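Milestone 3.1: sequence recovery, worked example.
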């Protein structure tokens, strides 16, 4: 399904470069959608930072991600960036926003339809904005992460570039954690599992909560439990090559969990807390195990050899590839174009 004569603007966040060098899930997805659309013949303009890398047209007014350059005021960068996209709205047939609630406040000021992919509700305090603009077009990234009253057109699972994650033929002997160092992601629970199982643990990711890191992570670091900092794709693959399993013991409902798909793409089983979208991404007993406690995670590790790494890879190919994601968004775009045509006739 291709409509190459339609012009689409992808509005990416400007916290990080698109695609990000290390952390940046929303920027990763915005990049994957952009590149996937371009490869299928769409005319796409990516609104992102000036140092972003894309095969689409790049439109930028912010030099670097505000998380990468402390001299940039985040709010100034965000509003310069969002307003720039909407000031050019008439040049496009659709704006696909990955900018959470802030961009919604511009949607009634332009005639161009706006699709918002909701990457997660960060706080109940932002919900009044979604409620005000609930008649817009929305996509959820998992069935579990939806709010009542919004005009959802579909759930579209995030897709990853499988070529970036080579299949690991044989498992390693380490547990790995990949993600933000924050209580929400359960790093302390991964450490507890490592202690109880006697397996070494490698921890990678940006430190988002310094107090949490100092109090609940750093005191446990030793030869067997190591923190190696933020990692790029190459370093992720080095970790996957050493992995017996990925631990994802989130303490709040997961919205999607890109790292779950990335690990499975490499053939690495995932042991995840059964909260939110984890049961949509991980097929319990087939690509990993869903658990409800540290104790269950330790028991699941005893069964990890039952998981077929090739089955993990196949599920990602079927459900969480860029191609699958882009095809789903093409269907959503077509629905919007049809609805808009009906309104104008």
């Amino acid at each position: 399904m291709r409509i190459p004569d339609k012009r689409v603007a992808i509005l990416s966040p400007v916290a990080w470069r698109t695609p990000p060098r290390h952390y940046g899930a929303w920027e990763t997805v915005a990049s994957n959608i952009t590149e996937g659309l371009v490869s299928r013949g769409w005319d796409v303009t990516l609104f992102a930072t000036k140092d972003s890398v894309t095969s689409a047209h790049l439109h930028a007014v912010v030099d670097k991600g505000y998380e990468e350059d402390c001299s940039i005021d985040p709010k100034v960068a965000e509003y310069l960036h969002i307003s720039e996209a909407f000031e050019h709205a008439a040049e496009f047939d659709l704006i696909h926003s990955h900018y959470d609630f802030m961009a919604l406040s511009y949607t009634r000021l332009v005639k161009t339809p706006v699709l918002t992919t909701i990457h997660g509700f960060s706080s109940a305090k932002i919900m009044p904005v979604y409620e005000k603009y609930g008649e817009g077009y929305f996509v959820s990234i998992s069935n579990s992460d939806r709010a009542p009253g919004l005009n959802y057109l579909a759930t579209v699972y995030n897709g990853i570039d499988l070529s970036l994650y080579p299949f690991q033929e044989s498992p390693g002997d380490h547990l790995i954690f990949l993600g933000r160092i924050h209580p929400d992601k359960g790093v302390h629970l991964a450490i507890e599992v490592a202690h109880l199982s006697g397996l070494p643990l490698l921890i990678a990711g940006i430190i988002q909560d310094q107090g949490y890191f100092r109090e609940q992570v750093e005191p446990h670091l030793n030869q067997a439990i190591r923190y190696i900092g933020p990692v790029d794709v190459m370093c992720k693959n080095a970790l996957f090559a050493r992995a017996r399993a990925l631990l994802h013991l989130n303490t709040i409902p997961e919205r999607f969990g890109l790292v779950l798909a990335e690990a499975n793409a490499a053939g690495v089983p995932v042991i995840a807390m059964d909260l939110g979208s984890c049961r949509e991404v991980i097929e319990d007993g087939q690509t990993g195990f869903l658990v409800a406690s540290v104790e269950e995670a330790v028991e699941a590790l005893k069964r990890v050899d039952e998981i077929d790494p090739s089955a993990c890879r196949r599920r990602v190919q079927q459900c969480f590839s860029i191609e699958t994601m882009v095809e789903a968004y093409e269907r959503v775009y077509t629905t919007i174009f049809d609805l808009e045509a009906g309104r104008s006739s």
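The chain is about 35% helix and 15% strand. The first strand starts at residue 7 and ends at 11.
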